[in-house]
Amino acid sequence: MITSDGKVGLARARWWPVLRRSHSDGDAAKQRSADEEPLRAELFSVSQLEQHARVLAGLHEVGPSGRKQDRLLPRLAANEEVLAEAYSSITEALKDGRGITPAAEWLLDNYHLIEEQIRTARRHLPGRYNRELPRLANPSSLGHPRVYDIAIELISHADGRIDVQGLRAFVAAYQAVTPLRLGELWAIPIMLRLALLENLRRVSATVTAGQRERARAGQWVDRMIEIAAKEPPNVVLVLADLVKETPTPTTAFVAELAGRLQARGPTLGIAMSWLEHRIAEQGQTIDQLFQLTSQSQAAAQVSIGNSIGSLRFLGATDWREFVEGVSVV
How far apart are CA 48 and CA 201, in angstroms? Predict the structure, then answer.
């Protein structure tokens, strides 16, 4: 709608009610549940990890023994598919001459390692062995092996970075409350591997989602440029279409839109003025929006870098020595 003073009448449209969400991809963001968010909780020191492990041990409830449906191997297969799609998406972006984020570069450069780790995980987790591990009865982790939940918690509070000191401290503190079975201790490296691959899947999904959003924003700016060259007043009609087709834009989309509009200068001045006004209605500025996007990209880069480094750590660790050192038997 165009008002009598020539402005686009979108003030009541509430175009981006969740502008601060730093990673999502349009419609998919509406359906994203907590189990698709990156494994990124409050970052803990070693002493805090020990305290958290003791609390976790007190909260864990092991369910009755018996044949349980395997959930880890199907999830590994799903993770492999998502990671392969992310790799293809990033590769295509480079072929098309589009820029990629540092996190995407990490994924691209280390994808061969990820493929190798997926094969290792599948080889080291036969179904029978997996089913024999004690499983949790807690609603939030129902059916998961207890040792897998331990791995998830450690990775979440270390942002994917695993080292010998933190791992030993976490496992020892947990066992000060509840001893783990010998088979669970031997399962720690494979569970860490599965959890790290899970984290890589989640972070990669947000990276490629942001990549798609930036590409969409670029297409809208190209459309505005084309219209501005022929019929400048009709740029406002393009803006109206944009709002109609993108009712809840993501931060990545809006930041890319703002950056590209800024780069065009006076050519798309009306579009830039409109966007600045809409961002101001949310109590933000374009600079703050750029900062949010930069922080999100930096967080993704750290998470992927840490997870890749931890996968390398798993392959270089003497797990026999580890198990002997932490076993309470």
Answer: 27
CA distance linking residue 115 with residue 327, whole number of Å = 31
Residues 6 or more apart in contact with residue 219 via CB below 8 angstroms: none
Distance CA 21, CA 36 (A): 14
Q: What does the pLDDT read at residue 33?
A: 58
User: Which pLDDT tens digit goes with each residue over 272-321?
Assistant: 888 888 888 888 888 998 999 999 999 999 999 999 999 999 999 999 99
pLDDT on residue 7:
42
Tell me which amino acid residue 209 is.
Answer: A
Q: How far apart are CA 179 and CA 186, in angstroms?
A: 14
Determine the pLDDT at residue 65: 67
C-alpha–C-alpha distance, residues 71 and 68, integer Å? 9
Distance CA 191, CA 40 (A): 17
Lookup result for tokens 């963001």: 29
All domains in the chain, ordered by first residue: 43-323 (3.90.1200)
> Helix 72-95 and helix 111-124: axis angle, to 10°?
170
Per the listing, tokens 């890589």 go with 200
Contact 257, 225 (CB under 8 A): no
Return the structure tokens found at 298.
């930096």
